[in-house]
Amino acid sequence: SSNRLLRSFSLNIGNHFDLTSSIFVAPRKGIYSFSFHVVKVYNRQTIQVSLMQNGYPVISAFAGDQDVTREAASNGVLLLMEREDKVHLKLERGNLMGGWKYSTFSGFLVFPL
């Protein structure tokens, strides 16, 4: 899907992030940390990127300054996830600089339950 993060990862221990679908699937129940960073294009529009858990938005990041050539937005969260829960990024509105090329998405298990 064009609204998902489609890029290669420098680190994917356990292969729980599917590079084809851009979805992370929790291997076990626990507390997970996720963060992301995106860059918008200069086109006088606002972007909104949401972190989705099982299809529902959990957190979002916004960028909309019209006087800046490039503007970045970041956010992070700790989530309680069950085994097989899914997390991905979704571009809700606007356009990103280079698509997802200059964006990052990170996640890891903080504490197993």
From TrEMBL:
C1q domain: residues covered: 1-113
Localisation per UniProt entry: Secreted
One biological process term in Gene Ontology: maintenance of synapse structure
Main location: secreted
Highest rank taxon of the organism: Eukaryota
A GO-annotated cellular component: synapse
Keywords on record: Secreted, Signal
PROSITE patterns attached to this UniProt entry: C1Q
Alphabetized PANTHER family for the sequence: CEREBELLIN-2, CEREBELLIN-RELATED
The protein, known as: Cerebellin 2 precursor
